[in-house]
Amino acid sequence: MQQESARRSNRDRTEATRGDLIAAARKLFTEKSYAETGTPEIVTAAGVTRGALYHHFADKQALFAAVVEQEAAAVAHEIEVAAPATLDAREALLAGSDAYLAAMRAPGRTRLLLLDGPAVLGRAAMDAIDNRHGNRELREGLLAAMRDRTMQRLPAEALTALLAAAFDRAALAVEAGGSPEDYRTVLVAIIDGLGRA
Q1: Are 137 and 83 in contact (CB under 8 A)?
Q2: Ranges in the chain, pLDDT < 70
Q3: What is the DSSP string of 59-73?
Q4: Every domain of the chain and the residues it spans
Q5: 31 touches 108 (CB < 8 A)
Q6: What is the pLDDT of residue 14?
Q7: Residue 33: which of 112, 140, 133 has the closest Cα?
Q8: CA-CA 20 to 30 A from 190: which of 34, 71, 144, 167?
């Protein structure tokens, strides 16, 4: 019993340290950028040693990948909550679209996921992260619409990739001061344009 409690306590401490590193890194990466952030700053902000950093992550890039993964998961969660299975396929796609644009307005998120992410991790790694999270949600929504016959049948992977690119471009434009309503209007028109011919 005591051994199990000690294991749980060690695991809790390990998870807490990892969480502190990710939180500190996220803050610095969004304030300064990946390139301008050094590991000494990260460990100071997290209140841990360099040894603790390298115990949890191979290097700064691995820590950055963990930050990006966590952010992508948070976006996907917000989409999932906004678009429950009880909605019809079209409404779920529209609710998911709105949730994506709202989620991407979190401070620093576009920089992490759309600018620094591809530059630091490479397009293939970012695609893999996206496919585990937001793109997975989008693909499932598109497939549901195709099954319901409210959307024409198209190659799901290509459609997901192209629509995801449109959503990403919209998020970047809104971040730069573009009208969220204008981008939403266009995205809705694209989704509706994919309806049964």
Answers
A1: yes
A2: 1-8, 196-197
A3: SHHHHHHHHHHHHHH
A4: 1-57, 60-197
A5: yes
A6: 85
A7: 112
A8: 71
pLDDT digits (tens, 9 = 90+) for 145-182: 999 999 999 999 999 999 999 999 999 999 999 999 99
State the burial class of residue 151 (Cβ atoms within 10 Å of its Cβ: 0-12, 13-18, 19+).
buried
User: Token pair of 27, please?
Assistant: 């803050």
Where is 163: in which H helix or E strand?
helix 156-175
Cα distance between residue 28 and residue 24, in whole Å? 6
Write the class of the CATH domain 1-57: mainly alpha
Q: Does domain 60-197 bear CATH number 1.10.357.10?
A: yes
Residue type, 100: Y
Which residue has 């994919």 as its token pair?
A: 194
